[in-house]
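In full, the data.
>
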Amino acid sequence: MRRTEHERRLEWQNSKEGKAPAKPKKTATKTEEKSKITDPSHEQIALLAQKFWAERGWQDGYAE
C-alpha cells in the first residue's frame, strides 16, 4: 500500500528533527563470540576421529 504525500509529510514532521528513525546497531557480543571461535587443530581432529572409531568397536570400513 502506497502512502500519500500528506502521510509522508506528517511522518516527517512527527519524527525527531525530521530524520528517519535510526537502525538498531549490532551488539558487540555477537562479534566477540565470532572472534573467539577457532578452527580445530589437526591433533584435535585426530583425537576425535580416534574416539569415534573406538566407540564403533575399532571396526574398519565405512560408517554405513
About this structure: The mean pLDDT is 76.
